[in-house]
Amino acid sequence: MDSKFQRVNSDENDSPIQFSPKEQWRIWKNVLVVGFAFMLQFTAFWGASNLQSSVNAEASLGTFTLAAIYGSLILSNIFLPVIVIRWLGVKWTICLAFLVYVPFIMAQFYPRFYTMIPAGLAVGFGGGPLWCAKCTYLTILSEAYAKVTGVGADITVTRFFGVFFLFYQFSQVWGNLISSAVLSSEGPAVAALSNSTLNNITFADVFNVSTASRNSEEICGANFCPGTVVEAIPNLAPPSTSKINTITGIYLACMIAAVLAVAFGVDSVKRYDQGRKGSGSDISGLRLLAVIVKQLANPYQILILPITMFIGAEQAFLAADFTSAFVSCGWGISNIGFVMICFGVCNGIASIFIGGIIKITGRSPVVCLALSLHVALIVTLLVWKPSEQAKLTFFIIAGLWGFCDAIWLVQINSLYGILFPGKEEAAYSNFRLWESTGSVITYIYSPYLCIDVKLSLLLCLLIIGACGYTAVEVIEWKGKDGELGGKREFKLVKSGEKEKSLEVAD
């Protein structure tokens, strides 16, 4: 394959630029900077989000804020990504979306419904364009890299997404390390208790370890229900305001650094897109909804919707329910960060190695492994009774959950790029739409259902999603003629070609 290719600028008067094989290093620089910026951004966001259901537990403020985030993210994915990307371009869409997350962090200084909910809605509206822009950017870079190096684009896109998610998932490490380092310096739990809580706790409840341990095993885990009397468990004592403010200040600095990294360290996508038209070009207003609905008519899109929803649901369960019903209740709020660090490390390491493993085994064996492990984890949570005496179990469950989540994220993200080349905006808008739908449904019913019911629902969704994914693999394996099946390859689309040229090349 020719090692050079032409990039045609959006301005037709500009002369074409020839790229040499050395361009691959510049492409890698862009991938790494984008990954690093997202790591900084979500160090702050995930660090704050993982504490919401425990720190802002009063009247379920934290959980409803998370629901607001993902609820507005659904609308954002429907109406905003293509429009915003067309107006600002991929690079500046990422920068603006990063800034939209800032009010959510600032609201932690004064957490009330009238500060947290609007800030959460803003995050959701910025999230749709952000993730669509990121996915589009990495996919276009993978196409360019394939032309420069001769490496298959399907391999390259999986590799780029794997590297990205390595950075992204390590945001769990740094965000939770920050929160745990600050919160672990808290004084005795009883000092942080509110007056109303103190009035309901007896001397024996606080200082009798066997009583607290017994209450923990009886109330926490799968038995945990909204409205359960948990005042006798000092683990649930909220941290002091000064500690929360310290964490919030650090998170704000991370978000500003993320914006600067993208603004000054990332090349415009115009350098690599060869004037290529995405599926949402020249679409505005409600016409974008028609594009997304049209994408839903694709049988592949329908089949992978349940597994896409599961990704959102399992992440929401981990953030809202595992952290509160298992870690906070069974061990203490200050330990949430340490447990979630284990999740982030395993998630990040798995993300970077999955691409290489896929080259050897193919997608199906890896997905089967994730399915088996995730089923086993859900069943374990249904029967396990968390307590301070079983500290290692918290880390094992979080680590394996992170391993499974990495497989789902990398494989389903890359699968969207492989199945729908040239339609990234509509395809990834659908991905974020249904992932967010899974999350928001989980957050909405979280304050009303017991943990055992939530785990049962999660297990059912996983099984349905696995069936849909299997159907896609079977159709591809059979290699049927027509729109479904057949060998797929990426196709670089030149400016001026009609929309029909964006269809998948068989």
TrEMBL record:
GO biological process terms held by the UniProt record: regulation of muscle contraction; regulation of potassium ion transport
Pfam families, A to Z: UNC-93
Keyword Transmembrane appears in the UniProt entry: yes
Keyword terms, alphabetized: Membrane, Transmembrane, Transmembrane helix
CC terms in the record's Gene Ontology section: plasma membrane; striated muscle dense body
Stretches that traverse the bilayer: 31-49, 61-85, 92-110, 116-133, 145-168, 244-266, 286-311, 331-354, 366-384, 390-410, 455-472
A GO molecular-function annotation: potassium channel regulator activity
Membrane topology: Multi-pass membrane protein
Subcellular location: Membrane
InterPro entries: Ion_channel_UNC-93, MFS_trans_sf, UNC-93_regulatory
Entry protein name: UNC93-like protein
Source lineage: Eukaryota, Metazoa, Ecdysozoa, Arthropoda, Hexapoda
